[in-house]
């Protein structure tokens, strides 16, 4: 490698070391470590480090066509150490502030969507429900009124026929029927009295 390529390689690896520190802090912020070991954490860690290795190799491939030397690892360590000592606290504060901003924007957007979309839909649904109840009750009243008008002649005819049949029944048979009706009323009155006591 020429001196320019070596210089670019060292600078790129220092930057990659800084990136590794940033990625680790971000990863640990969103996936905090637990004391208990589990398979999901293990798989996530492996995927994280594989992605970082692929990214560093891609940078190295662009800078010096993928030549690996000891100085590359030293440059990575230097970049990581520089991040730990100089930039870690600053980046963590910026990350927390960015997370708060994103959460605040999410809450604002959620409230706007609720006020502009969900709340009007609820009001419209309530109005439609109230209107449907009013229309249903009105239609039911109209149907009952029309049915009363239509059945009125039949009621008059039935009452007339019943009166004629009643006049045709002899007096002694009518008296016997009234007596039997009184006998049938006694159990009915007993049941009504029992129901009244039960309600008390």
SSE layout:
Elements: H1 3-30, H2 39-64, H3 70-168, H4 171-199
Helix pairs in contact: 1-2, 1-3
List keywords for this structure.
mainly alpha, 4 helices
Report a brief summary of the structure:
With 200 residues, this protein is mainly alpha-helical. Among the domains are: 3-102, no CATH class; 170-200. It has helices at residues 3-30, 39-64, 70-168, 171-199.
Query: Could you estimate the helical fraction of the residues in percent?
Result: over 70%
Classify the secondary structure makeup into a structural class: mainly alpha
**N-to-C SSE series?**
HHHH
| Biggest sheet record | none
Mean pLDDT: 79
Distance between the ends: 106 Å
Poorly predicted segments: 180-188
Shape verdict: rod-shaped
CA-based gyration radius: 45 Å
How many β-strands, per DSSP? 0
Annotation field: number of helices: 4
Q: Approximately what portion of the residues adopt beta-strand conformation? A: under 5%
Give the assembly state of these chains: single chain
Mind explaining what this structure looks like?
With 200 residues, the protein is mainly alpha-helical. Among the domains are: 3-102, no CATH class; 170-200. Helices cover 91% and strands 0% of the residues. It is built from four helices and no strands. It has helices at residues 3-30, 39-64, 70-168, 171-199. Helix 1 (3-30) runs parallel beside helix 3 (70-168). It is rod-shaped. It starts with a helix and ends with a helix. Mean pLDDT is 79; it is low at 180-188.
């Amino acid at each position: 490698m020429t001196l320019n390529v070596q210089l670019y390689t060292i600078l790129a690896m220092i930057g990659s070391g800084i990136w590794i520190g940033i990625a680790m802090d971000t990863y640990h912020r969103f996936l905090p470590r637990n004391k208990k070991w589990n398979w999901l954490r293990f798989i996530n860690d492996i995927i994280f480090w594989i992605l970082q290795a692929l990214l560093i190799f891609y940078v190295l491939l662009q800078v010096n066509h993928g030549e690996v030397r000891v100085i590359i690892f030293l440059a990575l360590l230097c970049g990581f150490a520089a991040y730990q000592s100089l930039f870690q606290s600053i980046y963590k504060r910026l990350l927390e502030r960015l997370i708060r901003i994103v959460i605040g924007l999410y809450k604002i957007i959620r409230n706007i969507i609720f006020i502009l979309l969900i709340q009007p839909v609820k009001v419209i649904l309530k109005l439609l429900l109230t209107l449907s109840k009013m229309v249903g009750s009105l239609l039911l009243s109209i149907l009952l009124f029309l049915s009363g008008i239509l059945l009125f002649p039949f009621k008059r005819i039935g009452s007339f026929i019943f009166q004629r049949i009643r006049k045709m029944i002899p007096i002694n048979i009518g008296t016997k029927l009234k007596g039997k009706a009184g006998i049938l009323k006694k159990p009915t009155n007993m049941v009504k009295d029992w129901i009244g006591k039960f309600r008390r």
